[in-house]
Amino acid sequence: MMSSVDRPRLLVATGNPGKAQEIRDLLAGMDVDILILSNLEGLWRTENLGGLPPTEDPEKISERFRRLERAMTESADTFAGNAAIKARGGRDITGLPTLADDSGLVVDALGGAPGVFSARYAGGHGDDEANNRLLLANMAGISDPQRTARFVAALALALPDGREFKSEGTCEGHIGWAPKGNGGFGYDPLFILAGDRRTTAELSREEKNQISHRGKALQAMVPVLRSIFAK
Hints:
It is a single chain. The chain is α/β, with parallel strands linked by helices. The protein has a single domain, classed as Alpha-Beta Complex (Maf protein), CATH 3.90.950.10. The chain is built from 7 helices and 6 strands. The chain has helices spanning about 15-25, 40-45, 60-70, 80-95, 130-140, 205-210, 215-230, and strands at about 10, 35, 100-105, 150-160, 165-175, 190-195. The termini are close together.
C-alpha cells in the first residue's frame, strides 16, 4: 500500500458537498486520493501543481481560482458538453486527472427544462429552495400523467496524457406536488421515483447511490477508473 503522500490523485471538479460525498461513497476502497476544488488552496500553497510554483500569496491563489473558474465555465447546451468543459479545465489548470459531472432535471411537460440550467433555474446558482418553488409554480395545473421527468448525469474524465472518457446515467420518475423528505439536495424532495411513492430525498444515502443518475454514470465509469488507479 502506498502512503497517502504517494497515492495517485483524482480531482473531482465540484464545490458541491452533496455531489462530492456521493462520489466519495461510490469510489470507496479505491486506492486514490479524491480531491475537490476546495483542496486546491492548500496544494497551491505547498506544491508545484500544474506547472505553477507554490505560493503563500493570497492574491496569486485567488487568481489561480479565477483562472480555473474561467476554464470550467459551463457554456455548452448539453450535460455531456458541460462535463467535458469542466474536466478539461480542471486538468489543464492543475495537471491532475479530473473527473467532472454535469447533471440536472429534465421535465417532459416543460420541454426538457430546467435541463442544463437546473442549478440556477430560479436565477441564483445552487438556491435549492427557490428552484423547487419555481418548478412547482411552473408545474401548477399539470396532471399526474404529464408530470414525468428524469434526472440525467453526464460524467467526463480528462487525463494529463490527453485521454478522455465519458459516461451517462438516468433515473426516471415524476414531479410531486409538494416537497417530501429531508435527505439529498437539489430537486430530490420533489422527484418521485418511477414505481415508488418515495422521493429521492426519502432514500438513505446507500439506496440513492444504487439507483441515482449519478450513481449509474459513475458505475459505468468505475472500470475505467479502476484500470487507471489499480493498486
